[in-house]
Amino acid sequence: MKSKDSSQYFQIINLAENEGKYEILIKFLLMARELVKDSNIDNSLSFAYAKLSKNTDLETFINGANSVDAQRVGDRCFEEKLYEAAKILFVSIKNNAKIASCLVRLKQFQAAIDSA
User: Which residues make Cβ contacts (< 8 Å) with residue 96, sequence separation at least 6?
Assistant: First the structure.
């Protein structure tokens, strides 16, 4: 796969997500990141970590060099009821309203009040 033809990457990403093959997708995306710098790849990697509840890996990835659209991926996680992952993403961009929403869903009411 040529590094310049990113459309093939996205076909693989869509197929893996549709099949729920997130473990394999993570391996693929880590390899793809070495060849192509693309925010969609980083977004997909973040979401794959979230889907597998690999929140420590997600947090490590978010705190490193990346091009993740944390708002977009956080919203997607929130819609999928992946509230802990969404909280990690919203914390990275300091979106207090969204952090509070996640904390309410996680029944961490005092923390939600504090972040609001």
Answer: 115, 116
